[in-house]
Write a structure and sequence with these properties.
This protein is α/β, with parallel strands linked by helices. It is built from 20 helices and 22 strands.
């Protein structure tokens, strides 16, 4: 009888003291130990097919994971058991990496001889098939317990044979409640899960479906397990938690819907804008045609002029709305704060909108408290809030209806309420009435007009003042109520103002104004208007001409366009200031460029005032009238 072949173990470790201790332990147990100190040497020696490789994870040339992978991928050595050892082998990622590289076991503490020998004997028994079934189950559990997906083995009837810990966690049930049950029972009785299994059985191919399980969404995938003849005898089932993915999908769909809705509103807005801009052009053109008619009766000429003025004011408001829209979308609306009293601002807004109420025969009521409402705010923007709300009420209230405005003080708040008996607002519309381009009336006649940005601007201006706005309506045909709440100060600040003023100081006939604009019609008509108001005017069409005229005529004020040919308005202003020295006239920028940046650039260039075309003539005249006369004579 031949002697049994001694068991050979290849010990791979670059740490000589640790290799010596491990080797001595294994030799005392009767094993033949061969040693290697590098990955390359281990791969060479593995070709002699030892019975077991004890492999350190950290090696100087090729790490233990790669050495293991190469051993397991080589047909000549793939049957050799590999035991990873490492004193720092503690992270689950390391464990998974080791198992995925093909290792048959691992030890994180190699200082205990009994544990080392027990592990070695177990791995050797596995190779010799002494306890193949037990080892297979243990390897399956060890491997799949590290997988982040839920894993279960099914038999040919769809009953659960084995599960991993991740599946227990996902389903919130221990393995004892899962093994032996069918797939539908595991997934809460969902029939689709059974359908996945039956489809896999019928096709013999992988099958999957997304299944809702309580608060989770699981992607259930089943791969067939075949016997030696190729028949499907069971399945390997993976349950992946895709709840986060589903939530993201819902968010993306909602975002896509919002973008689609925004795009639709923008298209409607552009169509609306074309309509609103064309509307005033027709009566304006007709009025100009009438004025140009020879021997036109004076009363018709006066009426035609009033029509032209009204339509120009309307177009100016549309342009201002568009500029405000740009400021809203870019977040560049800024307030010119000053101490003020809110009540006179509300009263002025009421008076400015009263003609619109009267034209539609509305029954109008106003109740303004007598309490002090001191604020730190922008009087123009505050009046815009009130005016937009009143215009909105008048627009959407049928002729003969009622509009009421109330102003009270409640603690540290001024509460402004605007009620009407108009068309009302649906619950759906109330949720988005302050959004851009939203209007209750989408009819083709567009009889109410407007661009659908007024309430958006009201909300933004209110928020910039530290306030809030809300809306309430009982539904279509039952009117609306808007409530604005603005913070007020405890006491009226020193030097508070009552609000916008209509007074315009009368100009001195000695005041000389030089007008500079390359648009001949614009500069000539402005010169005519200012001349009728008592100013002595001259005009120039470009920069060099205006500089020479300013040096010769020595005006008290220069109204200067920015977009001039050759020299722009900023350069012209600098030259005029340079040549005039301390006797520099008041410089007024009159331009089509609006916004905070354009205003800042004008003031930085030396301008005293900045106006946007078309200018409010009363405001321009007031600024010019305040210019100090230079007292010079000229030709």
């Amino acid at each position: 009888m031949s002697e049994p072949t001694p068991t050979r173990i290849l010990l791979v470790d670059d740490d000589e003291p640790k290799r010596y201790l491990l080797g001595r332990t294994l030799r005392r147990a009767g094993y033949v130990v061969e040693e290697a100190s590098s990955g390359a040497e281990a791969l060479r020696r593995s070709l002699t097919r030892p019975d077991l490789v004890v492999l350190d994870v950290k090696l100087p040339d090729v790490d233990g994971f790669e050495v293991c992978r190469r051993i397991k991928s080589d047909p000549a050595t793939r049957g050799i058991p590999v035991l990873h050892v490492s004193s720092t082998f503690v992270d689950i990622e390391d464990k998974v990496q080791g198992l995925e590289s093909g290792a048959d076991g691992y030890l994180t503490s190699v200082a205990e001889p009994l544990e080392l020998l027990a592990t070695v004997r177990a791995l050797l028994r596995a190779r010799r098939a002494e306890d193949a079934a037990e080892l297979s189950a243990r390897q399956w559990q060890t491997t799949f317990d590290t997988i982040s997906d839920g894993v279960m083995l099914l038999d040919g009837e769809g009953r659960v044979v084995q599960v991993n810990r991740t599946l227990e966690r996902l389903l919130g049930r221990p393995w004892s409640e899962l093994v032996g049950h069918g797939v539908p029972a595991i997934l809460g009785g969902d029939e689709p899960a059974r359908a996945i299994f039956e489809r896999m059985l019928a096709s013999g191919e992988r099958s999957s479906r997304d299944v809702e399980h309580g608060a989770l969404w699981l992607r259930v995938s089943m791969d067939p397990i075949r016997d030696a003849s190729g028949a499907v005898r069971g399945a390997l089932c993976l349950a992946t938690d895709i709840t986060g993915l589903k939530r993201l999908e819902v968010q993306l769909l909602a975002q896509a819907h919002r973008l689609q809705e925004d795009d639709r509103r923008k298209d409607e807005f552009l169509a609306m804008l074309g309509h609103e801009l064309r509307n005033p052009l027709a009566p304006l053109a007709h009025a100009l045609e009438l004025i140009a008619t020879p021997e036109l009766p004076p009363d018709l000429a006066t009426e035609a002029l009033e029509i032209a003025r009204r339509q120009v004011r309307h177009m100016s408001r549309l342009v201002e709305d568009l500029l405000d829209l740009s400021r809203i979308t870019r977040g560049t609306i800024e307030l010119r704060r000053q101490p003020l009293e809110f009540r006179p601002i509300v009263a002025h807004a009421i008076e400015s909108t009263r003609p619109q109420m009267e034209a539609r025969r509305h029954e109008f009521a106003a109740a303004l408290c007598l309490d002090a409402l001191p604020m730190d705010g922008d009087p123009t923007r505050l009046e815009q809030i009130v005016t937009n709300l009143l215009n909105n009420a008048a627009k959407y209230t049928e002729p003969g209806g009622r509009v009421a405005v109330a102003l009270v003080r409640r603690g540290n708040e001024a509460v402004l309420t605007v009620r009407d008996t108009g068309i009302g607002i649906t619950p759906e519309m109330q949720r988005c009435v302050f959004d851009l381009f939203v209007q209750a009336d989408r009819s083709l006649d567009r009889s109410q007009g407007g661009l659908g940005i007024g309430l958006t601007l009201v909300r933004r201006l209110t928020e910039l003042h530290g306030g809030t706005i809300s809306v309430f309506s009982e539904g279509p045909g039952r009117g609306s109520e808007f409530i604005v709440r603005l913070p007020v100060q405890a006491e009226a600040p020193a030097g508070s103002v009552a609000g916008p003023s209509d007074s315009v100081a009368g100009p001195s006939p000695r005041l000389r104004v030089l007008l500079v604009d390359d648009n001949s019609d614009s500069v000539k008509t402005l010169a005519m208007i200012l001349g009728l108001r008592g100013f002595d005017t001259r005009h120039a069409l470009d920069g060099p001409q205006s500089i020479a005229m300013a040096a010769e005529w020595r005006p008290d004020a220069v109204v200067l366009d920015i977009g001039l040919p050759g020299m722009d308005g900023y350069q012209v202003a600098a030259r005029i200031r340079e040549q005039a020295g301390n006797a520099c006239p008041t410089l007024v920028a009159l331009t089509g460029y609006g916004g905070t940046e354009a205003r800042r650039q004008a003031l930085d260039a030396g301008f005293d005032h900045h106006f946007i075309k078309p200018v409010n003539l009363d405001e321009l005249a007031s600024v010019l009238a305040a210019s100090a006369p230079r007292g010079a004579t000229g030709g």
